[in-house]
Amino acid sequence: VHFPDIERVEWLNKVLVQAWPYFGTIMEKTFKEVLEPKIRAKNVHLKTCTFTKIHFGEKCPRINGIKAYTKEIDRRQVVLDLQICYIGDCEIHMDISKFNLGVKGVQLYGTLRVILEPLLTEAPFIGAVTLFFMQKPHLEINWAGMSNLLDVPGINVMSDSLIQDFIAARLVLPNRITVPLKKNMNIAHLRFPIPHGVIRVHLLEAENLVQKDSFLGAIRGKSDPYALLRVGTVQYRSKTVSRDLNPIWNETFEFVVHEVPGQDLEVDLYDEDPDKDDFMGSLLISLVDVMNDRTVDEWFPLSKTTSGHLHLKVEWLSLVNDQEKLHEDKKGLSTAILIVYLDSAFNLPKHHFEYSNGECGAKKIKNNKYLKKMEREPSSFVLLTVGNKTQKSKTCNFSKDPTWGQAFTFFVHSAHSQSLHVEVKDKDRDSALGTSVVCLSHLLKDPNMTLDQRFQLDHSSSDSFIKMKLVLRALNVEEPDPQRVKAGVSASKQGPVRVMEKGGNQQKFVSPPKPEVSKVPPVSKDSAALESQLKKDSREDLDASDSSAAPVSSETVAGLSEAEHEQNPEHCLSSALHTRAAVVPTLPVVQEMRLAPSVASLGSLPSSCFELSSSNLDLHNGTEMPLGEIQLTVRYASIRQSLVVLVNGCRNLVPSSNRGVDPYVRIYLLPDRRWTSRKKTSIKKKTLNPQYDEKFEFFESLEDVKKRTLDIAVKNSRPFISQERKELGKVRIDLSQEDLIKGFAQW
């Protein structure tokens, strides 16, 4: 039985169905007794607001799946991701002074994260519940009554997106709702936790993009590509490169990462057009893997399109409380992040003051109507500015002691010279109620680089204050763990370690003394070509050298029958020598075997062999003759959401004719046997020990891949009318039994 990460919770959906009518009754009461009076108090024109019909319908929300995190998180918390889908038939109608407005049906789906923390040793066992959506949820509303106008094409998209933005401002990361379950629970650090880190994305270049521009509907022109990069609600747009299918951008963007695991980097490419921009492909990168790998620099294939690759370099920056890391960056990149927790203000003035010679006096107002307006409490919001970036808080209506309770993040280039500018403004009169400037160098005097205090407001009343908590953290690029196998595609490219040793005039392969495989830098194209040439030379040297130099493992040659020994002594020798030149598997297997004493014995270990068999049996069972071996490297690349299969090579193949064989390898990911989804290597001429080193990818989710089987066959490329046997052997690998994230490399 296979247990996927995301579990179905039908029992919970049955509970929801039973409880939904009772929930509807509670909500109807809340709308009438709580919401209606609040709406009436908002504005003079809303005093006649009445809910005429409130019905939450028969259809209740459905939870399609739940994912529970246990490994990547703190021991004192429980993290759940709920995939929510609500296609409701609710009906809510409201009358406002003869106008009838209403909603008749709502569709909503998204991933809601629920964090239960801190876990306690006494009832109620959970201190608080925090809720938020990872990304903006998808929302569609069917309007009724007068608000039917909002269903007009064009307006409906705008109205739905306005409501989505309203939800995003309260319920989408970095915003969250925290409900305390225990009395006197301080929830400030739960509502506004320090972010997990920052990612710096270098958008370098793309190649082979799809042509989207066409002239007169026939002649294909070149496209004008640009990229949209997104993490959560933050989105940046690159510059547009004109008429180029291989654009070079060389731009850098920085994103704050609030939740890992959970948040992803999304990149969409578009072709800029005067009317409507054409979609050119997209990419989704898991930030968990970027966090673990520290730096990912690769070409990624674009999905949802026919061709195109995108070259990105993504760096993970940790937030550290270390002033030594705050040196100014020469390239103008950020060196620190400032987190501002905007709490509240006290004793804001009712109106703007006029200052002259340090004394203040109220403006003389002639208009009596304006004077009345000034008597009421201010509706205030705050503008926060660092450098050239300004962020705006929500508005608190009619209060001289407003409470905002919001968090903001700013990238800082020079903590020693930059300042935070705070301006409290009145919404109705667009006038400043007070200002404050905080030099970030004050934060450096505190060992924790934190200030939590009331700040006196300038250009305001003498007893007007604003309460804020400021936290400064340096951005630090950590070195990747040398022992870790990279999660990116470069992991599958990382070949075996080959060390050359000169003994007399022959070279031989030596197993490395310690399994530090991952320290080898990724091989460049030039060095790869050089390495393959060296390998070729050494193999020729080996084949030419005398047999006494090669102590052959008896099990390896046992596969060849006595008759073959007599008929083909040269083949026997070269294959045995080739066995000796076998390559050390990559890290996972090397660690597992504690490094076998010699490379020859590695090839002979039955646990590390995929023997090619003529039947459907996966492994040679001792009763029939093995047909050779194939070396494969298989792993799942989480960042690209793909299964990577590297076909290294075959050895000791059994010829199907005296003419010799031209072998190639065919791969299916069962049960899919369609001709279009099969993968095939190049053909190697006249050899029983072909070397391919070719990589193939299957773009499927890890959950799907775990249910599949790899079907790999070695075939002989023969003339169409030939009677020769085509299949030289095959092997099947059940992927549900393998640790694909770690990967394996085996013969």
UniProtKB/TrEMBL annotation:
| Sequence ranges assigned to domain C2 in this UniProt record | 173-300, 318-459, 626-747
Biased-composition ranges, Low complexity, are 518-527, 545-554
Q: Which organism is it from?
A: Ciconia maguari
Listed name of the protein: Extended synaptotagmin-3
Residues covered by region (Disordered): 483-571
Q: Which GO terms describe its cellular component?
A: endoplasmic reticulum membrane; plasma membrane
Keywords on record: Calcium, Cell membrane, Endoplasmic reticulum, Lipid transport, Lipid-binding, Membrane, Metal-binding, Repeat, Transmembrane, Transmembrane helix, Transport
Q: Which family does it belong to?
A: Belongs to the extended synaptotagmin family.
- The residue ranges of the SMP-LTD domain are 5-182
GO MF term list: calcium ion binding; calcium-dependent phospholipid binding; phosphatidylcholine binding; phosphatidylethanolamine binding; phosphatidylinositol binding
Q: Where in the cell is it found?
A: Cell membrane; Endoplasmic reticulum membrane
GO biological process terms, alphabetically, are: endoplasmic reticulum-plasma membrane tethering; lipid transport
Q: Which InterPro entries does the record cross-reference, listed alphabetically?
A: C2_dom, C2_domain_sf, C2C_KIAA1228, Ext_Synaptotagmin_C2A, Ext_Synaptotagmin_C2B, Extended_Synaptotagmin, SMP_LBD, Synaptotagmin_SMP
Transcription found in the keyword field: no
